[in-house]
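Standup notes
- DV: blocked on the single-chain target, sequence here:
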Amino acid sequence: MNAVDVRTRILREATRLFAERGVSGTSIQAVATAAGITKPTLVYHFGGKDGLRTAVLAEFMDHWRHELPKLLTAAASGGPRLDSLVEALFDFFRRDPDRARLLLRESLDRPEELRTLLRDSVQPFTALITQAMRMGQMQGAIREKVDPEAFVVLVISCAVGVVAVGPFVSGLMSPEPSVDAQQAELIRMARVALLNPPGST
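- DV (later): unblocked, structure below
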């Protein structure tokens, strides 16, 4: 196994354990054991728990630094592109639900650190999305009363919540709605709330 594979395995297991137990409740040895490596190997790659946590969150943020620019026009263009934006958001978390759970865990354990990390790493790109939404409002595609910043925060919060706790909260319903059904309903709600009906302008 090469160094890249080892690093990837460590980050994956650290994400899972940090999401499950919190950073303070997870030992370096537990991550090393889960990754099938020795503790010195982990320390060689990340230096310690603080370095490992930083790397886990950096990987999380790097994804959006690469993906968001590709999707900037989605909110302004509406229709299938809006669907693609929300689907891409869901896909990131559904491919590894521990990402959503880790985000919730960090929001409880280290809220100010997470706020700073999101502001510094992702806010420049979400600001571009809200600017695109305002352009869509000027063009008449998006409802005038929509608050772009609030809309983006709510969609992201809903996506994280559906993936992290939706499978459990769905126990309130009978029959229980699947995560697929919850995702489809969120997209439907987002489109209705955001877009002006055809011919309304």
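- Follow-up: The chain has a mean pLDDT of 87.
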